[in-house]
Amino acid sequence: MQLIDPVVLGIGPLSPDDVVAVARHGAGVVLSPEAEQEITASRKVIEALADDVEPHYGVSTGFGALANRHIPTELRAQLQRSLIRSHAAGSGPEVEREVVRALMLLRLSTLATGRTGVRLETARAYAAMLSAGITPVVHEYGSLGCSGDLAPLAHCALAAMGEGTVRDAAARLRPAGEVLAEAGIAPIVLEEKEGLALINGTDGMLGMLVLASHDLRRLLRTADITAAMSVEAQLGTDAVFAADLQALRPHPGQAVSAANLRALLADSAVMASHRGPGCTKVQDAYSLRCSPQVHGAVRDTLAHAELVAGRELASAVDNPVVTRDGRVESNGNFHGAPIAYVLDFLAIAIADLASISERRTDRFLDVSRSHGLPAFLADDPGVDSGHMIAQYTQAAIVSELKRLAAPASVDSIPSSAMQEDHVSMGWSAARKLRRSVDGLIRVLAVELLTAARALDLRAPLTPAPATAAVVAGLRSDVAGPATDRYLAPEIEAAVSYVATGAALAAAESVAGPLG
């Protein structure tokens, strides 16, 4: 756990940075006085309905297709416990810690709005678990992305009840009750509506969208870096990135990408070497020349996804909800369609971004297109294979990314005896997007590794100061051109260089902040 300031949950929306701080960096969570007041006020509404002769969904009735059964008062605590135990039905691999923490935080954020009707001690228990680094075990499968991420959220609620399995702050797998007791957290005993309020949200898919968007912001700037290195090392031109040419097609992302490329390629001796009347090239291949158009379109897609995420972070997703004027109303806000669509959209954009990166990489390896570089960038082609198989690895990942780009949100399988007859599959869209982000990191790493080798082979010509800084940073872990070496560790070093943001930091140390 990192020693960073806790995030204060009020009645307003969380910021994406707060989500990342809690989910990824272990920040604790506290409820603001305003949030505690709202929670207390809405709980009074639920308690006032406990003895009402009129049925109220989730308070005095069953759930889903069983909502027509009236539940007597003496069975309502059992109703809530049974809901959580039966819905904690996930299967498959364990979900990553950061996703589970995001899931819990976003559910708590909705509780903090006061629109769910839970007791204050229930909300405080979630905050205490997050602050203590207690992470319930959640499984890969179990959510249809409608009526909430039911099974994943139920596993979290089960842990808060002191049941099931968690990982403690040291990541050890242990019984939930034991870890809660060690942390001084009393297991919650659910009352009317509370079980439903803890599972009826789109928090898992939203958490994964926020984390993916955060990573993609960095990776898009890194993609501009690798593109600049490729354009430079392949003796391309930066003239096509001129601001006035880009302004003829005024997409905002395209303008930002082109500006980055101009900054990264400034003062390049490699590029200066082939300017002038002696250069016979008319124009570069699409993968070089159209980099801003493709990278920019991904930026604009991400901006739309972030707009949707921002709206969701300002939402109170539950069913039924307690309105500010004291009504308890059913609704359909738990449907994950808005999130599911943009999750799928991002997977499509990532696949294409990786595809153009792989095409730039491949040009380095073909003597008919590499403008004087040795075949496969090998030291002694024929004896050495150079980066031949690095491109195979890259191509295999790109192919996988194209499969992951097939949308999940177009599918729907009816459930709950046809009561829940149209679902979003947003959780599935989010799970595959996480794999897509990882694949993109690896594809960009191979391009960076290959372009750096090509720039070294252009010596004595020197690259731009910004791209030279990126090459120098890589060279602290990966040696320059020579006879064939064990390549897998070098690829993994490049993956780390991209994933940690170190490559971006190296470029920005010279070029200044990239957009």
TrEMBL record:
Pathways per UniProt: Amino-acid degradation; L-histidine degradation into L-glutamate; N-formimidoyl-L-glutamate from L-histidine: step 1/3
Leader peptide range in chain numbering: none
NCBIfam families recorded: hutH, PRK09367.1
UniProt name for this protein: Histidine ammonia-lyase
CDD domains assigned to the protein according to its UniProt record, in alphabetical order: PAL-HAL
InterPro entries: Aromatic_Lyase, Fumarase/histidase_N, HutH, L-Aspartase-like, Phe/His_NH3-lyase_AS
Family matches, as Pfam families: Lyase_aromatic (PF00221)
Molecular-function annotations in GO: histidine ammonia-lyase activity
Catalyzed chemical reaction(s): L-histidine = trans-urocanate + NH4(+)
Enzyme Commission no: 4.3.1.3
Family: Belongs to the PAL/histidase family.
Keyword terms of this UniProt record: Histidine metabolism, Lyase
Subcellular location: Cytoplasm
